[in-house]
UniProtKB/TrEMBL annotation:
Keywords: Phosphoprotein. This is Glycogen accumulation regulator GarA. GO terms for molecular function: DNA binding. Residues 23-73 form the FHA domain. GO terms for biological process: regulation of DNA-templated transcription. Pfam families: FHA.
Length: 205
């Protein structure tokens, strides 16, 4: 199993494989992940640690903090595939990729395909996912998934009904209970192909 970061920069998306014991992230050019374009990132902002079967992230006393799935971290946190990391104005997504049976390790090719297909969804669950993920195709450089209130208003249902559908989706996609679960669900739904960016764009017209 290999891991990499999907780094979003003004120049576009970059895939950075994680290797070795430590991978540093910061504004200084000497970091393995150098975000020199982002003045809100500290010179040494955060570090990724190889735990063997997993990776963790730790803030290095940065000025503006490190956020994992929308939550500011104060201690080392183990990463799960699809986790969103924000440092300063920069956004990164952590992915774990299973090795193919023939040992192939083409990161970009493997990561561009869903690791596993999406679970079976009801029509209403699909509608909730589309509304949840639609802000991701907006012009906002750091989009947030739709709120429960916004989803309820658009789907003409109660917030309690939306929360129940979201809980079913968390269970079906295996979203852990900690952190911002809506962010993780949106990332996982896109990764596994439950919804596509093209479908989201079509739904806005």
């Amino acid at each position: 199993m290999s891991s990499h970061l999907e780094v979003f920069t003004p120049a576009g998306r970059e895939l950075v494989p994680l290797a070795g014991q430590r991978v540093t992230l910061g504004k200084a050019s000497g970091n393995a992940i150098a975000l020199e374009h982002d003045a809100t990132v500290s010179r040494l902002h955060a570090v990724f640690e190889n735990l063997g079967a997993a990776w963790s992230i730790r803030d290095m006393g940065s000025r503006n903090g490190t956020y994992l799935n929308g939550e500011k971290i104060t201690a080392e946190r183990v990463l799960h595939s699809g986790d969103e990391v924000r440092v300063g104005k920069s956004r990164l997504i952590f992915w774990m990729v299973r090795e193919s049976a023939d040992g192939g390790r083409d990161e970009e090719t493997v990561s561009a395909q869903p690791v596993e297909g999406p679970p079976r969804l009801t029509r209403r669950e699909y509608d909730v996912l589309v509304v949840l993920c639609r802000p991701l195709v907006s012009d906002d450089p750091f989009p947030e998934p739709a709120s429960v209130r916004a989803m309820a208003g658009e789907l003409y249902v109660t917030e309690a009904a939306v929360k129940q559908h979201l809980q079913n989706l968390y269970d079906k996609f295996g979203i852990p209970a900690e952190g911002d679960r809506r962010v993780r669900l949106a990332n996982e739904a896109l990764r596994r192909g439950a919804v596509t960016l093209a479908q989201l764009r079509d739904s806005t017209t």
